[in-house]
Design goal:
There is one protein chain. The chain is 81% helix and 0% strand. It has one domain. By secondary structure, it is mainly alpha-helical. Helix 1 packs antiparallel against helix 4. The longest helix is centred in the middle third of the chain and has 20 residues.
């Protein structure tokens, strides 16, 4: 249980860092051509979107709801 909380906090922290300072992953990973074509602010906006997703995933891991969330997504798309 403590490991799950630690991993969730780590994932959420990385996501928050991507949202707060998108220059860090931009300098570390570099620009993404798809994001430069699609988003108006380029790769910075893409890293912010990824950061929001990581933050949400981290909170799902902390609360141990990721399995039911994935099951609900699968039921929505595949109707099983």
């Amino acid at each position: 249980m403590l490991i799950r909380i630690f991993v969730g906090l780590l994932i959420s922290g990385v996501g928050f860092l991507c949202v707060k300072k998108p220059e860090i992953p931009l300098n570390f990973i570099g620009p993404i051509a798809f994001a430069e074509r699609t988003f108006s602010s380029g790769s910075k906006a893409f890293y912010k979107v990824v950061g929001i997703g990581l933050t949400m995933l981290g909170f799902l891991v902390i609360t141990n709801m990721y399995e039911s969330f994935l099951r609900g997504i699968g039921k929505f798309f595949f109707g099983t």
